[in-house]
Amino acid sequence: MKTPDTCPQCGAPLKPIEETNTGRKLQRCSKGSWNPDTKKVEGCPYVKWLQAEPQTLDENCPKCGAPLELRVTRFGKKMKKCTKGGWDKEARKPTGCDYIEWITGKTEELNEDCPTCGAKLVLYTTAKGKKMKKCSTSGWDREARQATGCTYVEWLNDSRSPSSASDQPPPPTDQDQRV
Ligand SMILES: [Zn+2]
Ligand SMILES: [Zn+2]
Ligand SMILES: [Zn+2]
Fold it and tell me: Which of 37, 106, 119, 156 matches a 20 to 30 Å C-alpha distance to 70?
């Protein structure tokens, strides 16, 4: 048994691990609590974010040949990052190899027609591995921050995990690609 973690600010034990709706894990100090009336944390404000373990991939960095690892950012986005890359906390700058590849899902052409407009459908796999069919004319207007073209979307249910309504990912957008 591990001894429970204690708060580095006040020494009180931390609360059990909570998960945010973006899938990140955190632990709050047991002396702190969220007051929905004042919209402030009362007591100790310490929050410990738990880093997901990086997962080494069976792929090599195109820049230096070192293995790549899969990282999940604070916002639940995934990226492949070179294991030779690091972060110098003192100098506040990256060290070593700076190769990063964001994982943003992939699109495959389908030989099916859109029931709404008759254009071809594409199969879109999100970064989280969910699949959906969508119309090839659909797009995303970055300026207006809204969907363009045909809005036909059909999510393919994954039989392995019964889908819960709260687990529905947002429609893929190009805005995730902005780093
Ligand atoms: Zn505390
Ligand atoms: Zn590299
Ligand atoms: Zn369509």
Answer: 156
Domain boundaries, the chain: 1-50, 55-103, 106-158
CA atoms 115, 119, 120, 126: torsion sign: negative
Residues with CB under 5 A from ligand 1 (ion): 7, 9-10, 12, 29, 31, 44, 46
CA distance 130 to 79: 17
From the CA of 48, how far away is ligand 1's center (Å)? 10
Give Cα 29 to chain centroid, integer Å: 25
- Calculate how far, in angstroms, residue 167's C-alpha sits from the geometric centre of ligand 3: 25
**Which pTM does this prediction carry?**
0.42
Answer yes or no: is pLDDT of 83 > 80. yes
Q: pLDDT at position 19, please?
A: 82
Distance 64 CA to ligand 2 centre (A): 4
